[in-house]
Q: What sequence folds into this?
């Protein structure tokens, strides 16, 4: 504890992961040892587990405006992205081998694209503007007769920018190209209706929405048009043969409950986040100058702030601020610090990528937390700047 009586370290990295909501945990508990059957077994224990899984599937489908048989359970958004992209690419390779994505995707999309390029596919990486938005006209121009897939994330995990998904869906549908969106960050925070938005494949993750880690789902459209996938994981033929492996029943229950809570309480939390975001920026800007916001000012996630701190290395700040958990967006490979590919793609100097940090808050974040973090950040920024100048 400290002067402001907040519990430290203050967690401000909800874009990286969220704690399991106690109500979600409560719902999951019976499925570990009381109702423990294998959902694929043909006896009473199995039927009970199967019934539970199908209820969870319906719940998630209804949130997305989808049919229950269009939801495939996976181990998370990474696997969902792999299944969607490898699955379409391999299934439709005789139709064409050109695939499109954006430069600011999560590595779980970008690295799949790179792998497909190594295997002979041709990929286009669309640029973004200084707010992180893909220009729909760029997308339209990049579609060719041999294009089979467009994968563009709904909301970005580093800068919070929300893409013009509706327009992208319109364009892909007009051109008869499948549209996959990584909605790991957006699901739960914004309304996503796959029918209205012309989405063909959509990835979600449990641990980004106060559900458990190691569970996710992929929405796969089954009509107008049906999307066929080549599986990535083979075995017992679970999930209509698209994802073999015994279903993690408690995690599936947790994912569905987390999705339901996020939908039911969206407005309430949105208000909380807007207040915290405003407060944090006010406090920080009052004691530090040379701060520039990354990402879109309005078309964005409310619980994310990414900003550039002039003249300060984000890494130095992270090392000094042990009592606040936030992210620099950089990937630390063994040899060197690789600055964020997202910030680099916004078109600024390399320095902006090295000097940007992300803070993201959640349901548990209080105004005292925000005040503590803003004060600590301001102190350390001013200290580091004095060292340099
Ligand atoms: C967290 C995240 C992922 C990875 O999800 P996992 O469930 O951890 O595999 C993919 N994409 C985005 C945008 C994310 O934020």
A:
């Amino acid at each position: 504890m400290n002067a402001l009586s907040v519990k430290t370290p203050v967690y401000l990295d909800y874009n990286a992961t969220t704690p399991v909501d106690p109500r979600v945990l409560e719902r999951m508990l019976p499925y570990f040892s009381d109702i423990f059957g294998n959902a694929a077994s043909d006896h009473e224990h199995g039927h009970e587990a199967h019934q539970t899984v199908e209820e969870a599937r319906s719940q998630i489908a209804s949130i997305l405006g989808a049919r229950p048989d269009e939801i495939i359970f996976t181990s998370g958004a990474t696997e969902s992205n792999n299944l969607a992209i490898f699955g379409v690419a391999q299934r439709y390779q005789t139709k064409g081998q050109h695939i499109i994505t954006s430069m600011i995707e999560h590595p779980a999309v970008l690295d799949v694209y790179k792998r497909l390029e190594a295997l002979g596919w041709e990929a286009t990486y669309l640029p973004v503007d200084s707010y992180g938005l893909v220009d729909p006209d760029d997308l339209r121009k990049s579609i060719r007769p041999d294009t089979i897939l467009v994968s563009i994330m709904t909301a970005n995990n580093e800068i919070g920018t929300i893409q013009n998904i509706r327009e992208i869906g319109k364009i892909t549908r007009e051109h008869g190209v499948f549209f996959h969106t990584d909605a790991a960050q957006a699901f739960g925070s914004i309304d996503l209706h796959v029918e209205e938005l012309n989405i063909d494949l959509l990835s979600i993750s449990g641990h980004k929405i106060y559900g458990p880690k190691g569970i996710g789902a992929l929405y796969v459209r089954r009509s107008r048009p049906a999307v066929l996938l080549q599986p990535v994981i083979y075995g017992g033929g679970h999930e209509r043969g698209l994802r073999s492996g015994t279903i993690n029943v408690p995690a599936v229950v947790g994912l569905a409950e987390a999705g339901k809570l996020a939908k039911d309480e969206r407005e309430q939390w949105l208000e909380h986040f807007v207040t915290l975001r405003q407060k944090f920026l006010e406090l920080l800007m009052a004691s530090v100058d040379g701060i520039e916001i990354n990402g879109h000012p309005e078309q964005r996630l409310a619980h994310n702030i990414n900003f550039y701190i002039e003249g300060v290395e984000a890494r130095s700040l992270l090392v000094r601020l042990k009592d606040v958990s936030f992210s620099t967006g950089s990937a630390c490979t063994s040899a060197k610090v690789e600055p964020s590919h997202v910030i680099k793609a916004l078109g600024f100097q390399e320095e902006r990528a090295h000097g940007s940090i992300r803070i993201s808050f959640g349901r548990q974040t209080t105004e005292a937390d925000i005040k503590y973090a803003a004060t600590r950040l301001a102190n350390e920024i001013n200290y580091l700047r004095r060292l340099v100048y």
In short: DSSP finds 13 helices and 14 strands in the chain.
